[in-house]
Task: structure prediction
Amino acid sequence: MSTKHPEHAKYITMDISEDSIAFLGKNSIYGTTEGFYNSKEKIIFFPGDCGAFQFEYKLRGGKLYLKNYLEDHIAERCDSNCCNKLIDFKHDLRTNLTFPKVKTNIETLKPFEVLNKELLENISLGIPKELYNKEYGDTLMLELSRRFATINDISKWVEHARSSRQEAIRDRISFRILADKNLPVKDLMPVINELKKNGVRRIFFTCLKANYETADNMFEYVFIERIDLDEGKTLQEILK
Result:
């Protein structure tokens, strides 16, 4: 089912299993939040700050009415075809992105070659969503680990990404760039150059497949070393 949220204009997905387990944001870029529900006490709980994701609920006419100390939500029952996997994926991003597509015979990598989630870091570059426009306007923003950041923050971020993993696997971390297709390559280069300066070698562009069935196979990836990073073109143009 989907829960409408006034700040995001779309929805948040909530999956409820038959064994008292619940999942929030199943297709989100940052992964699923797992919680539980108690049908006797009419409570759905997800871990979060100060109980923000703990709900009392009532089921009426096919709709689930959720209430916590912050606000009310209404969840509508739907099957897997009524939600948009791409919107679900982008929900927790702070930037608006229209992903590029690979339109030629550029060599791409399959999701399983990049998407070991234990070895994946996300870098987003785009214009802030409406929710953040008041503070940031239409300024191009870099997003690292759910926060807006600057080029100067990349070094410490990379250091943390490495130090949080065992030494034997640090060289296998994939750094996935999520950028709008119309973004000029010249605006991407400071990020790429700073990553390389910090010894990062596995850097990929994220491209939307023409056809996909699940969130896990929604994208294909281009290793940046295999294409010409022409700074006079947009990201989509260098992928044609």
Remarks:
- Residues 93-238 form one domain.
